[in-house]
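S1.2 Input.
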Amino acid sequence: MSERGERTRLSRDSGIPPASLNRLLAGGGTPTIDSLEQLATFFGDPLSVVLMGAGWLTPDDINRVRTGPPAGSDPITTDVALDELGITDPSDRRLIEAVIDTVKRNRTAGDSERTAE
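S1.3 Output.
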């Protein structure tokens, strides 16, 4: 299959519009969190894997999120965390903030479902 045919199939199967997919594959623009979630779902990977593959997060970043702050420490704000990670581009910051919001919503929804059981 040609590269164009593969892109067409990926666009169709992942639900990402062709123009958005072409821009993403060409390294142009900043993908939306929805596009990244669609790619993660399409490839059967967690969103964190896609973010690491894009170079936005490292395995250490993921582990810090999973384990949380050391006991007794004050909670860190998203802005402080992004500053400490050296993430200064406004588009990258908005994207990561959207991921954090999604994780918080999913975690809250999961807690609600467990409470209902």
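S1.4 Remarks. Residues 3-116 form one domain.
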